[in-house]
Amino acid sequence: MRGLKHSLAALALLLSSVSAHAFDTRATSAFVLDFNSGTVLMTKNADQPLPPASMSKLMTLYMAFEAIDNGILDLDQELPVSAAAQAYGGSTMFLKAGERVRVEDLIRGIIVLSGNDACVVIAEALSGTESKFSRQMTMRAQQLGMTNSTFTNSNGWPQAGHRMSMRDLGLITSKLIRDYPQYYPMFAQKEFLFDQSESANRFNRNPLLGLGIGADGLKTGHTEEAGYGLVGSAKQGDRRIIFVLSGLESAQARAAESEAVTNWAFRRFSQTELGKAGTKIAQAEVSIGAEQSVGLELAADLSVLLPVNPISPLKTEVVYDGPVKAPIAKGDQIGELIITPEGLSETRVPLVADRDVLRHGFVSRVMAAAKHLAARINSGPAPEAS
């Protein structure tokens, strides 16, 4: 059997011409993802392990949500604050050693206030020490497919070896949204006043919340080494995008770049309906069959994320191993439609047989058997011997 690859002229009426429009980001590293389709819209040094600053708190939050889901922690449970937790500087909840704090308050303190101390309280509750928790973070990240992440603390405090790639940050963001939708609304909270005496630190640092562009998360980050970064997500209509930016020079640059990336991702790409289930795409050659070919059709409605404002033709191909041996049943997957928008990853769509195709000669044998049976029935019972 030989492999056949066909250019798809049959889709000419279904698909428009398209061209990708790259975004030239000022960030030193970036990753942009269309959440529903899984299409990567942009990468820039996306697989390079870099200091993630407070954006790595998303991993701590994921493990906290996982522990709650598994019954290890409870939102109303009160956890003790250690001297190690109180000792952290930077962004904190101003926790004091010896006090006890509800898990839900700690989680909101991490999300809204970026509390370094709150992360340590969670880490010690789950693993005994922050260093042990950090090792468990690294192991869990590997299990989740985050191959460029190594953690040495729970909160992103500058420390040798504490690294994440922008793609890994995008992956943990996707998992937070998909695995724990019941907790995700916390990321849109603009203000959280935990301690009346420390009211200055009560506002979410995410610059996109409240701009009316659908932003609802997730986490900012800043250190001297890492620069200014943001893991963000926004939803408009049925589409959601996730983006990660790092290495910007100021909070103002982070805000401007994040808004620009969000607008670009929604305006330059759209989910496009290309065909209904049952639409015939091509013909496949058949061997040892009662028919010489079989139609290839879409197994399901086809919707693909495509760039807006068509310029160059969209690359489409049908691939199947052929000739296809009979017998073939309607609905059997025979090949794939490969759609490759310029600048985006390819989409592979299954193509199925549009009808049954019997093996060559089978029909005539069936017809002969049917005629023989009919003849016996019509001739009546054989006469008895005298």
Quick overview:
The protein has helices spanning 57-69, 83-86, 103-113, 116-127, 130-143, 166-179, 251-267, 362-379, and strands at 2-7, 29-34, 39-44, 78-80, 100-102, 215-223, 227-236, 239-248, 269-275, 280-287, 293-298, 302-307, 315-322, 324-325, 333-340, 347-353. The chain is α+β, with helices and mostly antiparallel strands and 386 residues long. Helix 4 crosses helix 5.
Question: Explain this structure to me?
Answer:
- With 386 residues, the protein is of the alpha+beta class.
- Helices cover 27% and strands 27% of the residues.
- It contains eight helices and 16 strands.
- Helix 3 packs across helix 4 (116-127).
End-to-end C-alpha gap: 62 Å
The helix-strand sequence is EEEHEHEHHHHEEEHEEEEEEEEH
Q: Whole-number radius of gyration?
A: 29 Å
Secondary-structure-based class equals: alpha+beta
Low-pLDDT runs of 5+ residues are 6-10, 12-20
The 3D shape can be described as elongated
Largest sheet: 7 strands, mixed
Give the averaged pLDDT, no decimals. Answer: 90
Helicity, as a percent range: 25-40%
- Strand % is 25-35%
Q: What is the count of β-strands? A: 16
Strands across the major sheet, in which order?
1-13-15-16-11-10-14
Individual helix count:
8
